[in-house]
Prior knowledge:
This protein is 84% helix and 0% strand. The protein has helices at 2-27, 33-56, 58-61, 66-87, 95-119.
Amino acid sequence: MLAEKFVKSAAVYIILGMILGIYMSATQDHSQMPTHAHLNLLGWVTMGLMGLIYKNWPAVAAAKFAKLTYWLAHVSVIGLTIGVGLLYAGMMEYEPIAIISSLIALLNMILFAFLFFKNA
Length: 120
């Protein structure tokens, strides 16, 4: 079930986000706060909400491209976490990872909104 996959994935991402937060606190190095925020907001909040929406609107979850939103969500969360993490580690040459992942996240939200407005 698509909704369940989203919520389970969100649970994994919040655990990873919490681990990063605890690491930052323990080391007193908060330079990765933007990475932590992207991981928690896209991974936990956005994917969790998408799962709840798919659960409450089964016609949206059954739409032709709904499964694609799941995979695009993962690509964007993982890509942005890596891309932003590398940027805030001072490796500016990896900026294209963050840019491309941001565009995938935007495309995914546009697709999700389209599916919702068309099928809800």
